[in-house]
UniProtKB/TrEMBL annotation:
Signal peptide: none annotated. Pfam families: TauD (PF02668). GO terms for molecular function: oxidoreductase activity. It comes from the Eukaryota. It comes from Podospora anserina (strain S / ATCC MYA-4624 / DSM 980 / FGSC 10383) (Pleurage anserina). The keyword Oxidoreductase applies. Keywords: Oxidoreductase. This is Podospora anserina S mat+ genomic DNA chromosome 2, supercontig 2. The keyword Oxidoreductase applies. Residues 83-334 form the TauD/TfdA-like domain. Gene3D superfamilies: Clavaminate synthase-like (3.60.130.10).
């Protein structure tokens, strides 16, 4: 089924992606892989191996003529199964996450890491190493997400950098899997919410199917692009919000780029959203709220989300004024697996070529302090950093 007319749409979508939060509320273990102390030891050894400090246990010399591999001396973008070696058992468990995201419920969580046990650099290596077992393509940089309003920055902050709640959205034009690595949690709030488009579709088909037709129309989009230092251009698109491909419904939605965020207005000559379309976006939020699953993050959690099929949202939060371990801080890395990943629905016209176009040596897998030293206006492709906003 590829972009059928709304008259031919199914009355209901079924399958693993057509879940609601009630399906998991009493059994969060079904989407959680809890790492054991032995797993953590393996990961620690892999970090040391990547840094060139030691052999991993299953690569110890077996005879007097064998030696440990030499110090690797590689940039962090090179962390992969060959440089971050794990046992076959742990590797297979991580690879199952790929199936959960692409062929199952559309999300999965790994729990059991203690970020406070690592340096900032080690956390980046750990994140890059683990994700390399889940997808063979990783984006050009790791984002460091936290409230930056107290930093007295001169530039305008995006919603991502504030403690405000964020509505349901997907990350725009970046790939089919979003991964989040929780470094620390706030004093209050900051819960994550997930809602699959299949269940949103079913909800709207019963309550207000006209909304689905409106979402399948061409909408005017605006996105900011920074091709060079302190250079800004506006990219425009005319494309739908939802579309079918390979018998799967996909969604590409963030209200800012559709003109529905008053704090980030469109260009003066851009067409304004009609009341009908504003109402349709509101109906999506209401449906997502009805079907969503609330996830309470813990430090060390790794969350993987199908970005083409599952919307995510975030509650507002309150950080500790002085305790960094009670301040919300999350690393983010976009992923795509070339063997199991989803093809983007052509009708959605996603521009994906700028997400995975750098080789390992060019990727900016920096710590938050290293990233902060580069002004946003300077974050361009040549530095291995994407400075394009990806959602609200």
């Amino acid at each position: 089924m590829d972009s059928p007319s709304s008259a031919d749409w199914p009355k209901e979508l079924t399958g693993d992606l057509a879940w609601t939060g009630a399906d998991f509320e009493s059994n969060t273990d079904v989407f959680t892989d809890k790492l054991s102390s032995q797993d953590i030891e393996e990961l620690n050894s892999a970090i040391k191996h990547f840094q060139g400090n030691t052999c991993v246990p299953h690569m110890q010399p077996t005879s007097s003529t064998d030696t440990c591999p030499p110090a690797l001396g590689l940039s962090r973008g090179h962390a992969d199964p060959t440089t971050f070696p794990l046992s076959q058992g742990l590797a297979k468990r991580l690879q199952k996450v790929t199936d959960h995201v692409y062929n199952g419920r559309g999300f999965h969580r790994i729990r059991g890491i203690n970020p406070s046990a690592y340096t900032d650099e080690e956390c980046v290596i750990l994140y890059a190493g683990i994700t390399s077992y889940i997808a063979d393509q990783r984006a050009r940089n790791i984002d460091h997400i936290r409230d930056r309003s107290r930093a007295q920055l001169s530039q305008k902050l995006s919603p991502l950098e504030l403690a405000k709640p964020m509505t349901f959205h997907t990350d725009i034009d970046v790939g089919d899997m979003v991964s989040l690595f929780v470094q620390s949690t706030p004093l209050e709030g900051g819960d994550q919410y997930l809602a699959p488009i299949a269940s949103i579709y079913n909800d709207l088909m019963k309550r207000d199917p006209e909304v689905l037709r409106i979402l399948s129309e061409n909408w005017y989009w605006e996105r900011i692009h920074r091709p060079g230092p302190n250079q800004t251009i506006t990219r425009t698109f005319n494309r739908p919000v939802i579309g079918f491909h390979n018998n799967q419904l996909q969604i590409n939605m963030a209200v800012t780029f559709l003109g529905a965020n008053p704090a980030i207005p469109f260009s003066p000559d851009a067409p304004q959203l009609t009341p009908e379309r504003i109402a349709a976006l509101n109906r999506v939020q209401e449906a997502a709220t009805r079907v969503n699953l609330r996830i309470v993050p813990e430090a060390g959690d790794l969350l993987f989300i199908n970005n083409f099929a599952v919307l995510h949202a975030r509650a507002g939060f309150v950080d500790s004024p002085d305790d960094v371990w009670n301040q919300r801080y999350i690393m983010r890395l976009w992923l795509h697996d070339s063997h199991k990943g989803w093809e983007s629905a052509p009708v959605l016209q996603r521009k994906l070529d700028e997400t995975f176009d750098l080789n390992a040596a060019e990727k900016a897998y920096w710590t938050k302090d290293e990233m902060d030293k580069v002004a946003p206006g300077m974050r361009i492709k040549q530095m291995g950093i994407s400075a394009n906003p990806d959602h609200d």
